[in-house]
Write a structure and sequence with these properties.
The complex is a heterodimer. Chain A is of the alpha+beta class. Chain A is about 30% helix and about 30% strand. A 10-stranded mixed β-sheet of chain A has the order 12-13-9-8-1-2-3-7-4-19, sandwiched between helices. In chain A, strands 5, 6, 15, 16, 17 and 18 form a 6-stranded antiparallel β-sheet that branches. In chain A, helix 7 packs across helix 8. Chain A is elongated. Chain B is of the alpha+beta class. The termini of chain B are close together. The model of chain B has no long low-confidence stretch (mean pLDDT about 95). The longest helix of chain B has 10 residues. Classes of the chains: A alpha+beta, B alpha+beta. Chains A and B meet through helix 10, strand 15, strand 16 and strand 18 of A and strand 2, strand 3 and strand 4 of B.
Chain lengths: ~450, ~100
Protein backbone atom coordinates (compact mmCIF):
# COMPACT_ATOMS: atom_id res chain seq x y z
CA UNK A 1 0.00 0.00 0.00
CA UNK A 2 1.29 3.46 -0.92
CA UNK A 3 -0.18 6.70 0.40
CA UNK A 4 0.28 9.92 -1.54
CA UNK A 5 -0.17 13.45 -0.22
CA UNK A 6 -0.69 16.27 -2.70
CA UNK A 7 -0.10 19.51 -0.78
CA UNK A 8 -1.90 21.81 -3.22
CA UNK A 9 -2.75 22.19 -6.89
CA UNK A 10 -0.06 24.79 -7.45
CA UNK A 11 2.80 25.59 -5.10
CA UNK A 12 2.30 29.15 -3.88
CA UNK A 13 -1.50 29.05 -4.13
CA UNK A 14 -1.68 27.70 -0.58
CA UNK A 15 -3.24 25.01 1.62
CA UNK A 16 -4.41 24.92 5.22
CA UNK A 17 -1.78 24.13 7.80
CA UNK A 18 -4.26 22.08 9.85
CA UNK A 19 -5.18 20.01 6.77
CA UNK A 20 -1.51 19.19 6.18
CA UNK A 21 -1.26 18.13 9.81
CA UNK A 22 -4.29 15.82 9.48
CA UNK A 23 -2.88 14.39 6.24
CA UNK A 24 0.53 13.75 7.85
CA UNK A 25 -1.19 11.77 10.64
CA UNK A 26 -2.21 9.29 7.88
CA UNK A 27 1.52 8.58 7.37
CA UNK A 28 1.89 9.29 3.64
CA UNK A 29 4.87 7.90 1.69
CA UNK A 30 5.72 11.27 0.16
CA UNK A 31 4.47 14.83 -0.27
CA UNK A 32 4.16 16.19 -3.80
CA UNK A 33 3.17 19.49 -5.38
CA UNK A 34 3.07 20.88 -8.87
CA UNK A 35 4.53 24.38 -9.20
CA UNK A 36 3.89 25.05 -12.87
CA UNK A 37 1.36 25.74 -15.57
CA UNK A 38 1.05 27.21 -19.04
CA UNK A 39 -2.36 28.60 -18.03
CA UNK A 40 -1.23 32.14 -17.18
CA UNK A 41 0.28 32.43 -20.64
CA UNK A 42 3.69 32.62 -22.32
CA UNK A 43 5.16 35.44 -20.21
CA UNK A 44 6.60 33.21 -17.48
CA UNK A 45 8.37 30.90 -19.93
CA UNK A 46 9.54 33.83 -22.05
CA UNK A 47 10.73 36.15 -19.31
CA UNK A 48 11.62 33.81 -16.42
CA UNK A 49 9.38 35.79 -14.04
CA UNK A 50 7.20 33.75 -11.65
CA UNK A 51 3.41 33.47 -11.24
CA UNK A 52 3.55 33.78 -7.43
CA UNK A 53 5.82 35.78 -5.14
CA UNK A 54 8.84 34.26 -3.41
CA UNK A 55 6.97 34.73 -0.12
CA UNK A 56 4.05 32.60 -1.35
CA UNK A 57 6.40 29.81 -2.58
CA UNK A 58 8.33 29.94 0.66
CA UNK A 59 5.25 29.67 2.89
CA UNK A 60 4.01 26.50 1.13
CA UNK A 61 7.44 24.90 0.66
CA UNK A 62 8.42 25.57 4.29
CA UNK A 63 5.42 23.66 5.64
CA UNK A 64 6.03 20.80 3.20
CA UNK A 65 9.76 20.55 4.01
CA UNK A 66 9.16 20.66 7.78
CA UNK A 67 6.49 17.93 7.54
CA UNK A 68 8.57 15.82 5.14
CA UNK A 69 11.73 15.99 7.23
CA UNK A 70 9.85 15.30 10.49
CA UNK A 71 8.30 12.16 8.98
CA UNK A 72 11.42 11.16 7.03
CA UNK A 73 9.58 11.03 3.67
CA UNK A 74 10.48 12.61 0.31
CA UNK A 75 9.15 15.99 -0.78
CA UNK A 76 8.76 16.28 -4.55
CA UNK A 77 8.03 19.52 -6.41
CA UNK A 78 7.82 19.72 -10.20
CA UNK A 79 7.73 22.55 -12.79
CA UNK A 80 9.49 25.01 -10.48
CA UNK A 81 8.14 28.57 -10.36
CA UNK A 82 5.62 28.34 -13.26
CA UNK A 83 7.55 27.41 -16.42
CA UNK A 84 10.36 25.27 -15.00
CA UNK A 85 13.27 26.96 -16.82
CA UNK A 86 16.73 26.67 -15.24
CA UNK A 87 16.56 30.14 -13.64
CA UNK A 88 13.19 29.35 -12.03
CA UNK A 89 14.52 25.98 -10.80
CA UNK A 90 17.50 27.78 -9.27
CA UNK A 91 15.11 30.27 -7.66
CA UNK A 92 13.07 27.56 -5.92
CA UNK A 93 16.23 25.66 -4.90
CA UNK A 94 17.46 28.94 -3.36
CA UNK A 95 14.21 29.26 -1.41
CA UNK A 96 14.62 25.66 -0.17
CA UNK A 97 18.19 26.48 0.96
CA UNK A 98 16.93 29.56 2.85
CA UNK A 99 14.24 27.51 4.58
CA UNK A 100 16.77 24.82 5.57
CA UNK A 101 19.07 27.42 7.08
CA UNK A 102 16.30 29.25 8.91
CA UNK A 103 14.58 26.10 10.22
CA UNK A 104 17.77 24.05 10.80
CA UNK A 105 16.71 21.32 8.38
CA UNK A 106 19.13 19.02 6.57
CA UNK A 107 18.41 16.98 3.44
CA UNK A 108 19.85 15.57 0.25
CA UNK A 109 18.41 17.65 -2.57
CA UNK A 110 18.14 16.69 -6.23
CA UNK A 111 17.58 19.47 -8.79
CA UNK A 112 16.32 18.19 -12.15
CA UNK A 113 17.06 20.51 -15.08
CA UNK A 114 14.53 20.64 -17.95
CA UNK A 115 16.00 23.18 -20.37
CA UNK A 116 17.69 21.26 -23.18
CA UNK A 117 20.62 22.56 -25.19
CA UNK A 118 19.61 24.31 -28.47
CA UNK A 119 22.19 22.34 -30.46
CA UNK A 120 20.62 19.11 -29.20
CA UNK A 121 17.16 20.24 -30.35
CA UNK A 122 18.41 21.34 -33.78
CA UNK A 123 20.07 17.94 -34.21
CA UNK A 124 16.82 16.19 -33.25
CA UNK A 125 14.90 18.39 -35.70
CA UNK A 126 17.31 17.47 -38.53
CA UNK A 127 16.97 13.77 -37.66
CA UNK A 128 13.19 14.05 -37.92
CA UNK A 129 12.75 13.23 -34.25
CA UNK A 130 10.63 16.26 -33.41
CA UNK A 131 6.97 15.96 -34.40
CA UNK A 132 4.04 18.40 -34.08
CA UNK A 133 1.06 17.99 -31.73
CA UNK A 134 -2.46 19.27 -32.43
CA UNK A 135 -2.67 22.78 -33.92
CA UNK A 136 1.12 23.29 -33.62
CA UNK A 137 2.85 26.28 -35.25
CA UNK A 138 5.46 25.62 -37.92
CA UNK A 139 8.85 24.57 -36.58
CA UNK A 140 12.26 25.25 -38.14
CA UNK A 141 15.75 26.06 -36.87
CA UNK A 142 14.82 29.74 -36.63
CA UNK A 143 12.05 28.96 -34.14
CA UNK A 144 14.54 27.07 -31.95
CA UNK A 145 17.06 29.92 -32.17
CA UNK A 146 14.53 32.71 -31.56
CA UNK A 147 12.90 31.16 -28.49
CA UNK A 148 13.69 32.90 -25.21
CA UNK A 149 13.41 29.53 -23.49
CA UNK A 150 12.54 25.95 -24.46
CA UNK A 151 11.73 23.31 -21.86
CA UNK A 152 10.99 19.60 -22.01
CA UNK A 153 8.33 18.04 -19.75
CA UNK A 154 10.08 15.37 -17.68
CA UNK A 155 8.50 11.94 -17.24
CA UNK A 156 8.77 9.80 -14.10
CA UNK A 157 12.25 8.49 -14.92
CA UNK A 158 14.36 11.46 -13.72
CA UNK A 159 12.37 11.48 -10.45
CA UNK A 160 12.96 7.73 -9.99
CA UNK A 161 16.66 8.21 -10.74
CA UNK A 162 16.86 10.92 -8.05
CA UNK A 163 14.92 8.84 -5.50
CA UNK A 164 17.20 5.85 -6.15
CA UNK A 165 20.17 8.14 -5.50
CA UNK A 166 18.73 8.85 -2.07
CA UNK A 167 17.23 12.27 -2.73
CA UNK A 168 15.05 13.40 0.17
CA UNK A 169 13.86 16.54 -1.56
CA UNK A 170 13.42 16.78 -5.33
CA UNK A 171 12.85 20.06 -7.10
CA UNK A 172 12.37 19.68 -10.83
CA UNK A 173 12.23 22.08 -13.73
CA UNK A 174 9.37 21.56 -16.20
CA UNK A 175 7.72 18.20 -15.76
CA UNK A 176 4.45 16.55 -16.68
CA UNK A 177 2.11 17.34 -13.77
CA UNK A 178 1.34 13.67 -13.21
CA UNK A 179 4.97 12.45 -13.18
CA UNK A 180 5.48 14.23 -9.84
CA UNK A 181 2.93 11.88 -8.28
CA UNK A 182 3.32 8.70 -10.37
CA UNK A 183 7.12 8.34 -10.00
CA UNK A 184 7.42 6.95 -6.47
CA UNK A 185 4.47 4.50 -6.76
CA UNK A 186 5.80 3.13 -10.09
CA UNK A 187 9.33 2.87 -8.60
CA UNK A 188 7.90 0.78 -5.75
CA UNK A 189 6.27 -1.59 -8.24
CA UNK A 190 2.72 -0.27 -8.32
CA UNK A 191 0.64 -1.05 -11.41
CA UNK A 192 1.31 1.93 -13.78
CA UNK A 193 -2.38 2.32 -14.69
CA UNK A 194 -3.31 2.80 -11.02
CA UNK A 195 -0.34 5.12 -10.44
CA UNK A 196 -0.98 7.38 -13.47
CA UNK A 197 -4.72 7.62 -12.89
CA UNK A 198 -4.15 8.50 -9.22
CA UNK A 199 -1.58 11.07 -10.34
CA UNK A 200 -4.07 12.76 -12.71
CA UNK A 201 -6.64 13.03 -9.89
CA UNK A 202 -4.12 14.35 -7.34
CA UNK A 203 -2.06 16.78 -9.44
CA UNK A 204 -4.57 19.60 -8.84
CA UNK A 205 -4.70 19.09 -5.06
CA UNK A 206 -8.26 19.39 -3.79
CA UNK A 207 -9.71 20.18 -7.24
CA UNK A 208 -11.49 16.79 -7.36
CA UNK A 209 -13.83 17.50 -4.41
CA UNK A 210 -17.55 18.23 -4.84
CA UNK A 211 -17.20 21.95 -4.02
CA UNK A 212 -13.70 23.43 -3.80
CA UNK A 213 -13.89 26.67 -1.82
CA UNK A 214 -10.13 27.26 -1.44
CA UNK A 215 -6.93 25.38 -2.41
CA UNK A 216 -6.00 22.53 -0.09
CA UNK A 217 -4.35 19.11 0.30
CA UNK A 218 -5.59 15.78 -1.07
CA UNK A 219 -4.69 12.20 -0.16
CA UNK A 220 -4.85 8.97 -2.17
CA UNK A 221 -4.11 5.44 -1.04
CA UNK A 222 -2.96 2.96 -3.67
CA UNK A 223 -3.22 -0.80 -3.80
CA UNK A 224 -2.05 -2.54 -6.96
CA UNK A 225 -5.37 -2.58 -8.84
CA UNK A 226 -7.18 0.42 -7.36
CA UNK A 227 -6.80 3.61 -5.38
CA UNK A 228 -8.96 5.44 -2.87
CA UNK A 229 -9.14 9.21 -2.79
CA UNK A 230 -10.39 10.97 0.35
CA UNK A 231 -9.89 14.62 1.29
CA UNK A 232 -8.01 15.18 4.57
CA UNK A 233 -10.01 18.40 5.08
CA UNK A 234 -13.24 17.40 6.86
CA UNK A 235 -15.13 20.30 5.21
CA UNK A 236 -14.55 18.64 1.83
CA UNK A 237 -15.96 15.50 0.28
CA UNK A 238 -15.42 13.53 -2.93
CA UNK A 239 -18.13 11.62 -4.77
CA UNK A 240 -17.80 9.39 -7.86
CA UNK A 241 -18.91 12.20 -10.20
CA UNK A 242 -16.53 14.78 -8.69
CA UNK A 243 -13.58 12.41 -9.08
CA UNK A 244 -14.56 11.27 -12.59
CA UNK A 245 -15.15 14.92 -13.58
CA UNK A 246 -11.55 15.81 -12.80
CA UNK A 247 -10.46 13.84 -15.89
CA UNK A 248 -12.18 16.55 -17.93
CA UNK A 249 -10.02 19.33 -16.55
CA UNK A 250 -7.44 20.91 -18.88
CA UNK A 251 -7.50 17.85 -21.08
CA UNK A 252 -8.93 17.45 -24.57
CA UNK A 253 -10.42 14.04 -23.67
CA UNK A 254 -11.39 12.51 -20.31
CA UNK A 255 -10.52 9.03 -21.59
CA UNK A 256 -6.83 9.45 -22.38
CA UNK A 257 -3.79 10.90 -20.72
CA UNK A 258 -0.67 10.94 -22.87
CA UNK A 259 2.58 10.58 -20.93
CA UNK A 260 6.18 10.24 -22.19
CA UNK A 261 6.23 6.45 -21.79
CA UNK A 262 2.65 5.58 -22.71
CA UNK A 263 -1.04 6.35 -22.65
CA UNK A 264 -3.42 5.99 -19.71
CA UNK A 265 -6.90 4.94 -20.81
CA UNK A 266 -9.80 5.53 -18.41
CA UNK A 267 -12.45 4.11 -20.76
CA UNK A 268 -13.01 1.11 -18.45
CA UNK A 269 -12.46 3.03 -15.20
CA UNK A 270 -15.05 2.60 -12.44
CA UNK A 271 -15.70 5.11 -9.65
CA UNK A 272 -17.49 3.91 -6.56
CA UNK A 273 -18.38 5.64 -3.28
CA UNK A 274 -16.76 4.03 -0.23
CA UNK A 275 -18.39 6.53 2.11
CA UNK A 276 -19.95 9.96 1.66
CA UNK A 277 -16.39 11.37 1.38
CA UNK A 278 -14.19 8.66 -0.17
CA UNK A 279 -14.14 7.24 -3.70
CA UNK A 280 -12.53 4.01 -4.93
CA UNK A 281 -11.20 4.07 -8.50
CA UNK A 282 -10.19 1.02 -10.55
CA UNK A 283 -10.24 -0.39 -14.08
CA UNK A 284 -7.94 2.00 -16.00
CA UNK A 285 -5.32 0.59 -18.33
CA UNK A 286 -1.86 1.84 -19.34
CA UNK A 287 -0.47 1.07 -22.78
CA UNK A 288 3.26 1.53 -23.22
CA UNK A 289 4.09 3.61 -26.32
CA UNK A 290 6.43 2.33 -29.01
CA UNK A 291 8.48 5.51 -28.86
CA UNK A 292 9.34 7.49 -25.74
CA UNK A 293 8.50 11.17 -26.30
CA UNK A 294 9.06 14.37 -24.36
CA UNK A 295 6.71 17.29 -24.91
CA UNK A 296 8.42 20.61 -25.64
CA UNK A 297 7.23 24.09 -24.72
CA UNK A 298 8.84 27.27 -26.03
CA UNK A 299 8.17 30.99 -25.97
CA UNK A 300 9.62 33.79 -28.08
CA UNK A 301 9.46 37.57 -27.84
CA UNK A 302 6.42 38.95 -29.69
CA UNK A 303 7.38 42.58 -29.05
CA UNK A 304 7.02 45.36 -26.50
CA UNK A 305 3.68 46.94 -25.78
CA UNK A 306 2.15 50.22 -24.79
CA UNK A 307 -1.54 50.44 -23.91
CA UNK A 308 -4.15 53.11 -23.20
CA UNK A 309 -7.37 52.48 -21.27
CA UNK A 310 -10.35 54.77 -21.81
CA UNK A 311 -14.15 54.92 -21.74
CA UNK A 312 -16.80 56.36 -24.07
CA UNK A 313 -20.10 57.63 -22.61
CA UNK A 314 -21.55 60.03 -25.21
CA UNK A 315 -24.79 58.45 -26.59
CA UNK A 316 -24.20 60.17 -29.94
CA UNK A 317 -20.84 58.41 -30.35
CA UNK A 318 -22.21 55.09 -29.04
CA UNK A 319 -25.05 55.16 -31.60
CA UNK A 320 -22.49 55.13 -34.41
CA UNK A 321 -19.73 53.39 -32.48
CA UNK A 322 -18.46 50.95 -35.16
CA UNK A 323 -18.02 53.60 -37.85
CA UNK A 324 -16.57 56.09 -35.33
CA UNK A 325 -14.00 53.51 -34.18
CA UNK A 326 -13.10 52.48 -37.74
CA UNK A 327 -12.47 56.14 -38.60
CA UNK A 328 -10.46 56.63 -35.42
CA UNK A 329 -8.22 53.63 -36.22
CA UNK A 330 -7.60 54.95 -39.73
CA UNK A 331 -6.78 58.42 -38.38
CA UNK A 332 -4.32 56.98 -35.83
CA UNK A 333 -2.49 54.96 -38.47
CA UNK A 334 -2.35 57.97 -40.80
CA UNK A 335 -0.89 60.11 -38.02
CA UNK A 336 1.70 57.43 -37.23
CA UNK A 337 2.74 57.31 -40.92
CA UNK A 338 3.01 61.10 -41.01
CA UNK A 339 5.27 61.19 -37.94
CA UNK A 340 7.38 58.04 -38.39
CA UNK A 341 7.47 57.64 -42.20
CA UNK A 342 6.03 55.06 -44.61
CA UNK A 343 8.32 52.24 -43.53
CA UNK A 344 6.83 52.25 -40.00
CA UNK A 345 3.98 50.03 -41.32
CA UNK A 346 6.01 46.82 -40.96
CA UNK A 347 7.32 47.74 -37.53
CA UNK A 348 4.23 47.87 -35.35
CA UNK A 349 0.82 46.33 -34.76
CA UNK A 350 -2.22 48.28 -33.57
CA UNK A 351 -5.18 46.63 -31.85
CA UNK A 352 -8.26 48.09 -30.17
CA UNK A 353 -10.20 45.99 -27.65
CA UNK A 354 -13.72 47.14 -26.84
CA UNK A 355 -14.97 46.22 -23.38
CA UNK A 356 -18.75 46.07 -23.22
CA UNK A 357 -18.91 44.87 -26.82
CA UNK A 358 -16.61 41.95 -27.62
CA UNK A 359 -13.59 42.08 -25.29
CA UNK A 360 -13.87 38.43 -24.20
CA UNK A 361 -14.64 36.79 -27.54
CA UNK A 362 -13.33 39.27 -30.11
CA UNK A 363 -14.63 38.70 -33.64
CA UNK A 364 -16.43 35.50 -32.49
CA UNK A 365 -18.91 37.44 -30.29
CA UNK A 366 -22.47 36.80 -31.54
CA UNK A 367 -24.13 39.42 -29.25
CA UNK A 368 -24.51 42.87 -30.86
CA UNK A 369 -26.28 44.97 -28.17
CA UNK A 370 -24.21 47.49 -26.19
CA UNK A 371 -24.87 49.37 -22.94
CA UNK A 372 -24.65 53.02 -21.90
CA UNK A 373 -20.83 53.10 -22.03
CA UNK A 374 -17.95 51.18 -23.60
CA UNK A 375 -14.40 50.58 -22.44
CA UNK A 376 -11.54 50.96 -24.91
CA UNK A 377 -8.12 49.40 -24.70
CA UNK A 378 -5.66 50.61 -27.32
CA UNK A 379 -2.64 48.38 -27.78
CA UNK A 380 0.53 49.01 -29.77
CA UNK A 381 3.14 46.26 -30.21
CA UNK A 382 6.61 47.15 -31.54
CA UNK A 383 10.16 45.81 -31.41
CA UNK A 384 11.29 48.16 -28.61
CA UNK A 385 9.50 49.72 -25.67
CA UNK A 386 10.65 53.18 -26.73
CA UNK A 387 9.04 52.79 -30.15
CA UNK A 388 5.81 51.33 -28.72
CA UNK A 389 5.53 54.25 -26.28
CA UNK A 390 6.35 56.82 -28.94
CA UNK A 391 3.68 55.44 -31.29
CA UNK A 392 1.11 55.31 -28.51
CA UNK A 393 1.66 58.99 -27.67
CA UNK A 394 0.44 59.81 -31.20
CA UNK A 395 -2.52 57.41 -30.87
CA UNK A 396 -3.52 58.87 -27.52
CA UNK A 397 -3.79 62.42 -28.76
CA UNK A 398 -5.51 61.55 -32.04
CA UNK A 399 -8.05 59.26 -30.35
CA UNK A 400 -9.11 61.51 -27.49
CA UNK A 401 -10.32 64.26 -29.84
CA UNK A 402 -11.71 62.10 -32.67
CA UNK A 403 -14.93 63.81 -33.88
CA UNK A 404 -18.46 62.77 -34.86
CA UNK A 405 -20.38 64.69 -37.56
CA UNK A 406 -23.23 65.68 -35.16
CA UNK A 407 -21.06 67.90 -32.97
CA UNK A 408 -19.40 70.98 -34.40
CA UNK A 409 -16.27 72.23 -32.64
CA UNK A 410 -13.52 70.33 -30.85
CA UNK A 411 -14.71 67.46 -28.64
CA UNK A 412 -12.99 65.25 -26.11
CA UNK A 413 -14.52 61.89 -26.83
CA UNK A 414 -12.72 59.44 -24.53
CA UNK A 415 -12.39 59.45 -20.71
CA UNK A 416 -8.84 58.51 -19.76
CA UNK A 417 -8.48 57.48 -16.10
CA UNK A 418 -4.69 57.95 -16.01
CA UNK A 419 -2.04 60.56 -16.61
CA UNK A 420 -0.03 59.78 -18.63
CA UNK A 421 -2.68 57.92 -20.61
CA UNK A 422 -0.19 55.47 -22.09
CA UNK A 423 1.11 52.58 -19.96
CA UNK A 424 4.30 50.69 -20.81
CA UNK A 425 3.38 47.00 -20.58
CA UNK A 426 6.88 45.69 -21.26
CA UNK A 427 7.74 42.54 -23.19
CA UNK A 428 5.02 40.33 -24.63
CA UNK A 429 5.76 36.70 -25.55
CA UNK A 430 4.24 34.04 -27.78
CA UNK A 431 4.14 30.26 -27.33
CA UNK A 432 6.13 29.01 -30.29
CA UNK A 433 6.27 25.22 -29.86
CA UNK A 434 3.72 22.46 -29.41
CA UNK A 435 5.83 19.44 -30.30
CA UNK A 436 7.32 16.23 -28.96
CA UNK A 437 10.91 15.07 -29.25
CA UNK A 438 12.24 11.51 -29.09
CA UNK A 439 15.28 11.40 -26.78
CA UNK A 440 17.68 8.42 -26.92
CA UNK A 441 16.82 7.72 -23.28
CA UNK A 442 14.32 9.10 -20.74
CA UNK A 443 17.16 10.74 -18.76
CA UNK A 444 19.10 12.23 -21.68
CA UNK A 445 17.42 15.67 -21.57
CA UNK A 446 17.28 16.03 -17.78
CA UNK A 447 20.53 16.74 -15.95
CA UNK A 448 20.30 16.03 -12.22
CA UNK A 449 22.40 17.89 -9.64
CA UNK A 450 22.69 16.67 -6.07
CA UNK A 451 23.65 18.65 -3.00
CA UNK A 452 23.38 18.30 0.74
CA UNK A 453 21.40 21.25 2.03
CA UNK A 454 21.85 22.24 5.63
CA UNK B 1 -35.44 25.43 -21.96
CA UNK B 2 -31.91 26.82 -21.95
CA UNK B 3 -28.79 24.73 -21.36
CA UNK B 4 -27.85 26.59 -18.14
CA UNK B 5 -31.14 25.49 -16.56
CA UNK B 6 -30.25 21.79 -16.77
CA UNK B 7 -26.45 21.93 -16.39
CA UNK B 8 -24.59 22.11 -13.11
CA UNK B 9 -21.47 23.43 -14.80
CA UNK B 10 -20.70 24.99 -18.16
CA UNK B 11 -17.08 26.07 -18.57
CA UNK B 12 -14.29 26.67 -21.04
CA UNK B 13 -10.56 26.39 -20.49
CA UNK B 14 -7.29 25.98 -22.34
CA UNK B 15 -6.25 22.43 -22.99
CA UNK B 16 -2.70 23.65 -23.45
CA UNK B 17 -2.02 26.96 -25.25
CA UNK B 18 -3.18 25.67 -28.64
CA UNK B 19 -6.57 24.11 -27.86
CA UNK B 20 -9.76 25.29 -26.20
CA UNK B 21 -11.96 22.80 -24.37
CA UNK B 22 -15.56 23.12 -23.13
CA UNK B 23 -17.21 21.00 -20.42
CA UNK B 24 -20.96 20.75 -20.00
CA UNK B 25 -21.77 18.75 -16.86
CA UNK B 26 -25.46 17.93 -16.35
CA UNK B 27 -27.36 18.00 -13.07
CA UNK B 28 -28.36 14.34 -13.35
CA UNK B 29 -27.88 11.25 -15.47
CA UNK B 30 -31.36 11.27 -17.04
CA UNK B 31 -30.98 14.86 -18.30
CA UNK B 32 -27.50 14.05 -19.57
CA UNK B 33 -28.80 11.10 -21.58
CA UNK B 34 -31.59 13.21 -23.06
CA UNK B 35 -29.21 15.98 -24.18
CA UNK B 36 -26.60 13.47 -25.38
CA UNK B 37 -29.11 11.48 -27.43
CA UNK B 38 -30.85 14.57 -28.84
CA UNK B 39 -27.50 15.68 -30.29
CA UNK B 40 -28.21 19.36 -29.57
CA UNK B 41 -24.55 19.97 -28.81
CA UNK B 42 -23.05 19.06 -32.15
CA UNK B 43 -20.11 19.84 -34.41
CA UNK B 44 -22.22 21.92 -36.82
CA UNK B 45 -23.43 24.27 -34.06
CA UNK B 46 -19.90 24.68 -32.75
CA UNK B 47 -18.45 25.20 -36.19
CA UNK B 48 -21.03 27.91 -36.91
CA UNK B 49 -20.64 29.64 -33.53
CA UNK B 50 -16.85 29.57 -33.38
CA UNK B 51 -16.33 29.93 -37.16
CA UNK B 52 -14.55 26.63 -37.73
CA UNK B 53 -14.79 23.68 -40.07
CA UNK B 54 -16.96 20.96 -38.41
CA UNK B 55 -14.14 18.42 -38.97
CA UNK B 56 -11.91 20.09 -36.37
CA UNK B 57 -14.57 19.98 -33.61
CA UNK B 58 -14.17 17.04 -31.22
CA UNK B 59 -17.24 16.07 -29.17
CA UNK B 60 -16.93 13.39 -26.49
CA UNK B 61 -19.73 12.02 -24.31
CA UNK B 62 -18.42 11.17 -20.85
CA UNK B 63 -21.01 9.01 -19.09
CA UNK B 64 -19.01 8.68 -15.82
CA UNK B 65 -19.49 12.38 -15.07
CA UNK B 66 -22.74 12.95 -17.03
CA UNK B 67 -20.71 15.38 -19.12
CA UNK B 68 -20.17 16.39 -22.72
CA UNK B 69 -16.72 17.64 -23.67
CA UNK B 70 -16.05 19.71 -26.77
CA UNK B 71 -12.52 20.57 -27.92
CA UNK B 72 -11.61 22.99 -30.72
CA UNK B 73 -8.37 24.52 -32.01
CA UNK B 74 -7.78 27.79 -30.18
CA UNK B 75 -8.79 30.75 -32.38
CA UNK B 76 -5.52 32.45 -31.29
CA UNK B 77 -2.56 31.08 -29.33
CA UNK B 78 -3.00 31.71 -25.59
CA UNK B 79 -1.43 35.06 -24.63
CA UNK B 80 -0.47 36.03 -28.19
CA UNK B 81 -0.84 39.74 -28.98
CA UNK B 82 -4.27 39.27 -30.60
CA UNK B 83 -5.62 36.89 -27.92
CA UNK B 84 -8.43 38.14 -25.69
CA UNK B 85 -8.59 35.38 -23.05
CA UNK B 86 -5.29 33.93 -21.81
CA UNK B 87 -6.90 31.15 -19.71
CA UNK B 88 -9.65 30.55 -22.28
CA UNK B 89 -12.08 30.75 -19.38
CA UNK B 90 -14.77 33.06 -20.84
CA UNK B 91 -15.45 31.50 -24.22
CA UNK B 92 -18.55 29.47 -23.26
CA UNK B 93 -21.06 32.35 -23.25
CA UNK B 94 -22.99 31.24 -26.37
CA UNK B 95 -23.47 27.74 -24.85
CA UNK B 96 -25.20 29.05 -21.71
CA UNK B 97 -28.33 30.17 -23.53
CA UNK B 98 -28.38 27.34 -26.07
CA UNK B 99 -32.02 26.29 -26.58
CA UNK B 100 -32.71 22.68 -25.52
CA UNK B 101 -35.90 21.23 -27.04
Amino acid sequence: MIRVLSATGMLGSGFREETLKRAMALRPDFIGADSGSTDPGPYYLGSGDTHFSDSAYKRDLRLMLRAGRAAGIPVIVGSACTAGIDAQLERLVGIARDIAREDKLQFKLAAIHSEPDRGYLKRKLKEGRITPLANAPRLDEGVIERASHIVGLAGIEPYIEALEHGAEVIIAGRSSDTSIFAALPVMRGCNPATAWHMAKILECGAACVVQRKYPDCMVATLADDHFVVEPPNLEYRCDPVSVASHNLYENSTPYELIEPSGVLSTVEARYEALSDRAVRVCGSTFRKSERYTIKLEGAELAGFQSIIIGAVRDPVILRQFDSWLAGLERACKDRIRAVFGEDIEEKYKFHVRVFGKNAAMGPLEPETAIGHELGLLFQVTAQTQDLATALMKSVGHMAVHYPVPEWSGLITSIAYPYSPAEIARGASYRFSLNHVVEPASPLEMFRIEYETVR
Amino acid sequence: MKLWQIAKLIRSKNSGPFELTFDVIMKDRATYEKVRDAGVINAQWFARTYRLRPEVVSIINYDAAAAIKITIPRPTISGDIDDSDVFGGQQYGPLVDLEIP
